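Listing 4. Sequential folding, example run.
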Amino acid sequence: MKYADLEGKRCEAARGLRAGCPVCRSPVIAKCGEHRCHHWAHASARKCDAWWEPETVWHRAWKNEFPTEQQEIVLSAECGEKHIADVKTAHGFVIEFQHSPIAADERRAREAFYRRMVWVVDGRRLERSRSQFFRALELDRRPVQANRLTFRMRSPESALLRIWAGSRVPVCIDFGHDAHERPYFEEPVLWLVHPGSTRDDVFVTPMTRAEFIRRLHTEEPWKGISWLRVRSVETFLQPMHLPLGPTRPATLGFAQYMARKHRARSRIRF
C-alpha cells in the first residue's frame, strides 16, 4: 500500500514509521528498501484484501497521474466486503492498474464489485506480449471506423487479447512508449479493448495516454485517434512484425485514400 492511517491522517511510508491498515485497522510497518517502491506492509503475514498485488514502479507512476485524495480508496459493499481501489476519480469512476496475471473469476468479481471502472493493463510484463499483439493486428486487422480509428480482430494470436477480450468494462493495454516502438503516433498511446468483445471478435481502438487521463478527470466521453492523427498512414498499413511477403490490404476506403494522398505529396519537389 502507498498510504496507511497514522493518527487519523493518510500517510506515505517512511523509515521507522508504524501505522494502521485502512481496511482491517491492524498494524502495518513501513518498507523503505532500495529496490522496491516505498510501501506499507502488514506486520503479520495476513493479507486483508484478497485482490492485493505487489506494487511496482509502473503502478506508482500511474497512480501519481491522479490527486493523492483519489488514490487507494477503500470501498465497501452492503455485505461488509471491503477492497482498496487503486484510483477512484471525483466522478466516482474506479481505475484498476493490473500488472500481475489475474484469474477470470477474480476479474469478473472486481468488475461486479466496482461496476463503473476501467482496467489499465501492463503490456510490458512479458517480453512477447507486444510482438504478439501487433502480429495479431497485422495478420487479421480490419479497420471498421476511421474517425475513431477502430480495428476488428478475429481469432487473435495475442495472449493479452484472449485473456481480456471477455471483460464487460473497458480495458486499456499499456505497451509503453520507447525507442523500440514503431513510430505510428506522435504521442504515447493505449490500446482500448472494447467491452463486450469476444476472443473471435475483438474491437480495439488506439487513444493517446494524455487524452485518456484528461477525460477521466473530466468524465467526458473518450475519443480515439483518427486516421488524420496517424503520423504516417502508409507506414501504418505496411507489415508490422512479419517478414516481407504478400499481406491482406486494409479494407477501409478512407485509409486507402489517405495513403494515395501521402504518396502524391511525397513526389512534390520544391
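-- end of first protein; second protein begins --
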Amino acid sequence: MGTGLRLPAVVALTSVLAACSGATGVSGTGAGQSPTPAPSVSAASTDAVPSPSVASFAFPSRTAQLAMSEPVRFQTGSAVLAGRLFGHGRTGIVLSHMGPQGNDQTAWWPMAALLARHGYVVLTYDYPGICPGGVAGCSSGRLNSDVTPDVDSALEFLRSQGAEQVVLGGASIGAMGSIDVASRRSDVAALVSVSGVEFAGPYDLDRGVLRHVTCPKLFVAGTFDREAADSARDWNRWAGPPKEAHILRTGLHGTDMLSASGDDAFVPGALVRLLLSFLRRHLPARPS
C-alpha cells in the first residue's frame, strides 16, 4: 500500500457536485513551508487516531498567489476555459476543482501557490460555464458534469507551456475526471485524488478502470465523508503499485480541506504534507 512513509492517519466527503464541509495532529508553519509532523501511524493506514489542537496552516496570501501567477486561456471542445498558471518548471501539476456548480478554480489557488514555491508549474482552471469573474476570469460554454475532456485539455495546455511531466490532481468531481483521464492515457506522470467517489454523474470508476491507472497514485479522503473514504479504500485495493491511501479524521470534502479551522485545523497541514511527500518521492520538481 504505502511506500514506507510514516505520518498521521487521515479521514471526509459529502456530495460530488456540490461540496460540503475531527482530527489528526500536524502543526502549521510559515507560508510555503512544510508542516511539522505529529505522532504518526503507518502511511497507508485507514484508521483515524486522536489529534491534539493545532495552529492553522499558513498558505501564501491572495496577494502572493496573484503575484506568482498569470491568467491563461485554453480551448476544450467549443469552449474557452479561463485558468491561472503558477510558477515555472518542467514538472507540471493540473489541479481540477470541485463542482462544477458553485465551485471554481480559486479554491485551489492556495495549494497551487505553495506548490509553485516548491518548484512546480501548476495550472488551475474553471470548467465550461463557470464564471467567478475578476482575476479568476470566466470560462465560456455550458456546465457539464463530464469534466474528462476539460482535464484532458488542461493536461495538453500545460505540456504546451513546457511541462515535460504532468501530474493530474483533483477534488471531488475533478478527482474523478482525473482518474478517468489517467486510465486512458499512458503519459500521466502521477495522480492525486482528494475526495473523489466511485459513482457520480457520468462516472463509474470501478476495479476495471483503476487497473488501467499505472502511474503513482495518492488517494485522500475524510473519515466522515463516507462515500469518499470508502472509494479511497477501494481504489487503493484495486489499483496496482505505486499507490497509497490516507483517510483523515474529518468530515470536510475536497478543497474545503484547505480552509479548515477549529477541530479541523490540522487538515490543511496534513494534506500539504501528504502531497509534498508523495511528489518528492515520485515526481520531484525540475527547474526550467
